[in-house]
Amino acid sequence: MLRRSLLTIMLGSFAIFYWTFLALIVDTQEPLQTQAIFLAVSEAQESLQAGMSSNTKEEEAPSALPDNVNEVANIMSERRKELQKQCAETLTPEEEALPINSKEFLINDEYKLVWCNIFKAASSTWMYNFIIMAGNSDKYYQKSMKTSPVEVTREFYPRPSLEDLERSVTHLNYTSFVIVREPFQRLLSAYRDKMESPKQPYYESLRCAIVANFSSDAHENRGRCTPTFSEFVDYLLEEASLGRPPNEHWAPYYSFCSPCRVNFDYILHFETLPRDEAFLLQAVEGLSRVVSPHNLHSSNTNYETINRDYFSQLTSAQIQGLLAIYQHDFTIFGYSVQKYLEFAQS
To answer: Which among 5, 102, 175, 327 could bridge 165 via Cys, Cβ 3.0 to 4.6 Å?
Structure first.
């Protein structure tokens, strides 16, 4: 166990050093390239953190496919049933009538696989997998790090129409799946990546605008362009109150991937991702020949301390406001919000 922990730290530290070195070299290059490299730095840091944490709780979270495959199949079946039940009980008629958001899906015809990409829920890993599944080498993924993984992936998987999606899922019986993550944990991950990172030039103007509009003392904070988590939440709440569509990195699942309208075969959870992915590779014929379980990004990190540090900055009113946005995601996918209500300030 100690040897594995030391190896994890050494490999993770080398990855962070490598990407940071590249970032220093390209500091004067195009903004998108700089943005992509610093995204890699943040992902390397999160992977290192995940590896260190998972070694301390290895037996708590399933990290491989159990001997009894039927056990995981039953879990997947129960998740589908619970989703269908909660969709029927939770959504209003207006929400049920929302059109299916087909544009965020990727359809691979060779492996008959359909995936809805939820950002900050193993999305980079599965974009890489879909690039490889299209018959490409690693160089295309390296290309995506210089521009945008989404743009490169869409070169091979154009955004499907509703008719394309229905044909694949309903008529051709392709295997469909989605990966979800505890909603507030995903929101915090997006904040730390897009708002706290000073080397995300694409979001710089938004960061500065949030500070200018939501800081309690705009004069004192003049020149600061990194919003606090509380300021970021105030921005989200105002955007929602004005009916503006949210950024893709923190958009609610129920509207972004239309899970109550698309009958997904498998619902994978970020919290049990190694096991769930291993099951998916067995379930889809031929997929294990091009996608290996050990190449998939997995994280058993316990974010409890990190969550508490950030969400304790929020008031109960702010937590309730966030719940108004993300309550469906908690309910439909079986996550609990109770601990966040306890974290909140009085």
So the answer is: 102
